[in-house]
Amino acid sequence: MDFLILLLGGAVLGFAGVFVRLADTTANLGPFASAFWRMAVATPFLLAWAAVAWARQPPAQPLPPTAAPTPQWFSRRATPPALLAHWPTWGLALFAAAMFALDLVFFHLAVTWTAVGNATLESNFAPVLITLAFWVITRNAPRPVFLAGLAAALGGAALMIGPNFGNSRALLGDASGLVSAVFYAAYQVGIQQARQRLSTAPLMAVVTLLAAVVLWPFALAEGRLWPSAAIGWVWVLGLALLVQIGGQVVIAYAVRRLNPALSSVGLLVQPAMAVVYAWILLGEALTAPQLLGAGLVLAGIYLARKGM
Fold this sequence. Notes:
Blueprint: H1 2-13, H2 16-27, H3 31-55, H4 89-113, H5 116-123, H6 126-138, H7 144-161, H8 168-194, H9 200-222, H10 231-255, H11 260-267, H12 269-282, H13 288-306
Helix pairs in contact: 1-10, 1-11, 1-12, 2-4, 2-10, 2-12, 3-4, 3-9, 3-10, 4-5, 4-8, 4-9, 5-8, 5-12, 6-8, 7-13
């Protein structure tokens, strides 16, 4: 059942790029504006969830001197030795929010400029980039299966991007998709460290609120902050409620009890379904080489995660 829930969450997340594109084309809502509204609309719901979680917390019980408390809202327990572990909690939350906001900036640009399937698959390079970064920092070489996955993913990306050569706008979109993966990888590192000290509800609420603040000047400068048609709010609600809250919360619930290897396979449904949604709803059919490339990217990401 948990694996089916995970698949459902990944399938919901696959709608993100489609909603961004539809908001742009049907309501003239800019990519930065849709990112801002995604965070801003989701924030009150997440704050309410955090408040309910706070109210339902059982009274604190005295612990034996040798017992270590489980981190709930704010905990003074030291985090395990890891990158950013020495940062204060507020610094980790702000870092995670800023990285997530920048991830959305480049992902939404990618969705606007290139195919939704391309943008989503490229943004899912984050696990590969995290492993590469830790390889450089720790000088501990990953397992050979990771290198095989990296080669497959890069080869697949080349096949998917190939038809865009000669189209500077589409190439910029593909580049933005890859840059979004860098920021998403940094976000994952920050959120993993912050999760050692904050429970899920307040952490998601704080990060979403701060991300909205970071995205506000981007949306304001863009000049397309408000949808020009009422249908735009439908796509905004889809991004906020389905993607930001529904997809993320469902996945967070499911992965806590699943084997990491099984979770890695299940989460690949997000980019796979994004390609399907874009084909059905936007008419973005992939060529045979691009379909082969998409398969290689998915296989490469799976192998890379397995080798982490």
